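Hi F.,

I've been meaning to write this up properly since the lab meeting, where we talked about keeping a consistent format for the predictions we share between groups. The idea is simple: the sequence comes first, exactly as it goes in, then the structure tokens exactly as they come out, then a line or two of notes. No screenshots and no reformatting. I'm using this chain as the first example so we have something concrete to point to.
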Amino acid sequence: VYFVFEWLVRFAAFADKRNCLKDHWFVCDTVLMALMVVDIWVLTVIYELGILKGGSSSTQYFQLARLVRLARMARMAKVMRALPELMVLIKGMRVACRSVFFTLVLLMIIIYAFAIF
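Output, unedited:
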């Protein structure tokens, strides 16, 4: 839902809608979003309705669909390359997780101690 919303906002930002086909990143995002929509929404509906039942052909189809999910990783790699500051923030959050965890443990011990006494 988030990526679809982002795509709609980016599409609405084009004054002339035909110019979106000239923006290569937008075309790449459109393909990845379409694959995501097919993977998450369409294949789920097909699977739940039982249109594709067991068998080697449907199994191979779902294995191919799982492979398409890797295409979403290309989008995240693009974002990481375009925003190196984001990587600095992510690394900082990862380092801070340890101290936040121990603070949480200390708070739980204090709450437990005061709950007993």
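Notes:
The chain has a mean pLDDT of 82.
The helical segments are 2-13, 24-49, 56-69, 71-82, 84-116.

If this format works for you, I'll send the rest the same way.

G.
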